[in-house]
């Protein structure tokens, strides 16, 4: 994540400032805005030009390239995801996180926290994220954790969409099940859009995690670090893609029709 690197954050800020004021933006103005020296801005700009994120006409006039814009948008989506996690899972709990105890824990015990399969866990030991328990908890029980320090790292999320035909075009009887099995492997969260999709999953002995409200559910799963398989009838795919793209989520579409 960009927040782990001060250099990445500074590059992001410089590109945003140039994009907002290009081409006539002074390095001193950027330096004053983001709190670094003009010399540092100059060095960063040289690197950004070298990386093809910026174009210079040689007269201290800069424009953000298409590659640079794409990089900024990708980093902005990372920030959006993390901000959503903070607002929903940290601030909304008034700085108290609810985790699942992996072992017997005592009140006011220092614990480490981590995310696994979309759920927050707490256990003894050192880790990137630490906190103090609010109560005793047995293994498998929920426990409140406060005085949080550190940032919870979420894994990269990939969403695979398997397109199957509507019933009038064969439905589940016209699915390549070898392909469907292949794409279902390793996906911790599986959604079905349409009865044809549900039956197709049942034919390979998979019960989907979600059937109704699948589009929003997949988005929520992604923001908790879960990669998904969405098996969908073809007519539902355009609205699903619009929803994923609105959140900046990565996906691939695979046609598993015979």
Structure report:
- The protein is an alpha/beta fold.
- The protein folds into three domains: 2-88, Arc Repressor Mutant, subunit A (Orthogonal Bundle), CATH 1.10.10.10; 94-149, no CATH class; 159-255, Cobalt-precorrin-4 Transmethylase, domain 1 (3-Layer(aba) Sandwich), CATH 3.40.1010.
- It is 38% helix and 22% strand.
- The protein has a five-stranded mixed β-barrel. It has a four-stranded parallel beta sheet with strand order 9-10-8-11, sandwiched between helices. The protein has a two-stranded antiparallel ribbon with strand order 1-2.
- Helix 1 packs across helix 4 and helix 2 (27-34) crosses helix 3.
- The longest helix is centred in the N-terminal third of the chain and has 25 residues, at 66-90.
- It is flat.
- The model has no long low-confidence stretch (mean pLDDT 86).
Would you spell out the secondary-structure blueprint of this structure?
Layout: H1 6-21, H2 27-34, H3 38-50, E1 54-56, E2 62-64, H4 66-90, E3 97-101, E4 110-116, E5 119-123, E6 130-133, E7 142-149, E8 159-164, H5 177-184, E9 189-193, H6 195-202, H7 214-223, E10 228-233, H8 237-246, E11 251-255
Parallel strand pairs: 3-5, 8-10, 8-11, 9-10
Antiparallel strand pairs: 1-2, 3-7, 4-5, 4-6, 6-7
